[in-house]
Amino acid sequence: MPASNFSSADPLGHALLDYQRGQLDASLTVHSNVAEEEPLPAAYFFRSLWEMPELERQALDECRGRVLDLGAGAGCHALELQSRDFEVKAVDISAGAVQVMQERGVREVACHDIFAAPLAHEKYDTLLMLMNGVGLVGTLEGLEKFLRHARTMLAPGGQILATSSDISYLYEDEEGALVFDLNGPYYGEVTYVMQYGEQQGAEFPWLFADASIVQDYAEDAGYEVEFLGEDEQQQYLVRLTMRMERDA
């Protein structure tokens, strides 16, 4: 099916499908309320294991049991896990991304958001949220909601492996002091719009949660929190496990 058969509200899907069809220079433009617009090459979603940042490779090594890959994009993580004989279900809200994953050989794929009710009827040993995957929750309110929802999806002893970033550096003045409205929204709540050619998608929220926020929200929701690594871009990898399971 050609990319043009998809809704123009799915610029990511169009870009991934064009790349899959051989248009290797396909690239999105990302607009946000906190930074200048920037390109996002479709190739980024098709990375091999050794093209992935170290935190993502570490997360893949930490996976266990049945894996749910949330916000799976073109399926690079799911395919790597399949090659290691993991049972993986890959989920993305983009219909185009889902078609690309099916074409690339991801065995179990679904098209819906991370809060979808069907997920609550299945149990997973690992919930995987990479490429700043905490952002999928959208807002701090969404983070609280997702942490409750995730408890219904995790098998006994299950874990969430997720990456996020602290973007407070965007609010530093010339002296390095942080300048933002403490009475306003949390500075990590960002609004994005993706554009591919003339196709512009709907505005959507994305959460960049600093480590202390994740720790506070996760502990309040009954999780144990373990930070597994951090890189030079202030991105980190965290493991969340249900406290009652670990203490049992």
Report on this model:
It is a single chain. With 248 residues, the protein is an alpha/beta fold. It starts with 10 loop residues before the first helix and ends with a helix. It has one domain (51-187, 206-247): Vaccinia Virus protein VP39 (Rossmann fold). The model is unreliable at 1-5 (pLDDT under 50). Strands 5-4-3-6-7-12-11 form a 7-stranded mixed sheet, sandwiched between helices. Strands 1, 2, 8, 9 and 10 form a 5-stranded antiparallel sheet that branches. It is built from 7 helices and 12 strands. InterPro entries: Methyltransf_25, SAM-dependent_MTases_sf. This is Class I SAM-dependent methyltransferase.
Spatial order of the strands in the main sheet? 5-4-3-6-7-12-11
Please state the average pLDDT score.
90
Low-confidence stretches: 1-5
Q: Percent of residues in helical segments? A: 25-40%
CATH third-tier fold name: Rossmann fold
Rg over CA atoms, rounded to whole Å, is 18 Å
Q: Note the gap between the termini.
A: 50 Å
This entry's quaternary arrangement is single chain
Biggest sheet, in brief?
7 strands, mixed
Beta strands, count: 12
Number of domains: 1
CATH architecture: 3-Layer(aba) Sandwich
CATH homolog superfamily: Vaccinia Virus protein VP39
CATH class: Alpha Beta
| Category by helix and strand content | alpha/beta
Number of helices: 7
Protein name: Class I SAM-dependent methyltransferase
GO molecular function, one term: methyltransferase activity
Organism: Hymenobacter sediminicola
Pfam family, one: Methyltransf_25
